[in-house]
Amino acid sequence: MKTHKQPSFSKKVYEVVRNIPRGKVLTYAEVAAKAGKPKASRAVGYWMSKNYDTNIPCHRVVRSDGKIGDYNRGGPKKKFELLLKEGYRP
Q1: Does residue 26 lie in a domain region?
Q2: Is residue 64 situated within a structural domain?
Q3: Tens digit of pLDDT for each residue in 10-69?
Q4: How many domains does the chain have?
Q5: How many C-beta atoms surround the C-beta of residue 50 within 10 A?
Q6: Is residue 25 annotated as a catalytic residue, yes or no?
Q7: Are 23 and 90 within 8 A, CB to CB?
Q8: Rounded distance between C-alpha atoms, residue 9 and residue 14, angstroms
Q9: What CATH number corresponds to the domain at position 17?
């Protein structure tokens, strides 16, 4: 009998984030829920901080309190600039 290995949580997180459309954002908590672990928003933040793959738009993940949050490729200011350039309107 074959067993099917489930994708790791980080792979699920990256897949959710990869599918966030330009000009839109999800919160860390929303990404965690869509990846199957609703209480793992801190883990989502961890995986976003470790992401350097430009095909995964981690700048589209924001905090639940309405703040932008950090960005490992230039800080919050750069993250906000990228979002505005993509059409995001807070």
Answers
A1: yes
A2: yes
A3: 999 999 999 999 999 999 999 999 999 999 999 999 999 999 999 999 999 999 998 999
A4: 1
A5: 11
A6: no
A7: no
A8: 9
A9: 1.10.10.10
Domain-embedded: residue 63: yes
Which residue type occupies 31?
A: V
> What 3-state DSSP class applies to 65?
coil
Evaluate if residue 3 carries a pLDDT over 60: no
Which of 58, 62, 68, 83 is catalytic? The answer is: 58
Largest CA distance in the chain: 52
For 62, the 3-state DSSP assignment is: strand
The Cα–Cα gap between 17 and 54 comes to 12
pTM of the model: 0.90
| 36 close to 12: Cβ distance less than 8 angstroms | yes
